[in-house]
Amino acid sequence: MWNCWHFSELNTQQLYDILALRQEVFVVEQDCPYQDADGLDFDAWHICVYDEGHLVAYTRILKKGVTYDDYASIGRVITSMRWRGKGKGRELMQYSIDKTKTLLGDGPIKISAQSHLEKYYASLGFKPTGEEYLEDGIPHMGMVLYEF
Question: Which of 3, 9, 58, 84 is deepest in the core (most CB within 10 A)?
Fold first, then answer.
């Protein structure tokens, strides 16, 4: 089931599910200890996809000026291991793009993409911007979706 909640609408179980999935993928699976609780969740919309009662995919949407001065953004993009390879990540990103437009209106969307996923995000219409950089020890690149 696809859901979009503002932080203020999340219940404690949903918040726990989000934090647990983010830790499972970003901290444990990617072996990247970092401070996930960055203070940005409070003013974000959280896209949560549940399957058989388990959170299996997630993104968060931030309005322009929160992460990037001139762009809305989609971040913390996660598809759990059990859902990968089934096209659900593409559905998740398309749903997140559509929700960003619905919630925040027309305008470009910027992401901080792990560099090895550049072609994947390009296939969704994102274009690289700037140079590659390290974020928490992982190569990333800024990418922007101008038209959707």
Answer: 58
CA of 104: how far to CAs of 74, 120, 140, in Å? 12, 24, 25
Read off the amino acid at residue 117: L
Q: Tell me which architecture the domain covering 2-145 has in CATH.
A: 3-Layer(aba) Sandwich (3.40)
User: Which amino acid is residue 93, in one-letter code?
Assistant: M
Instruction: Give the Cα-Cα-Cα angle 13, 14, 17 (nearest 5 degrees).
Output: 85
Chain segment 36-67, per-residue pLDDT in tens? 899 999 999 999 999 999 999 999 999 999 99
pLDDT at 35: 86
Query: Three-class SS of residue 111?
Result: strand
Cβ proximity of 142 and 121 under 8 Å = no
Domain boundaries, the chain: 2-145
Local structure of residue 85 (DSSP, 8 states): T
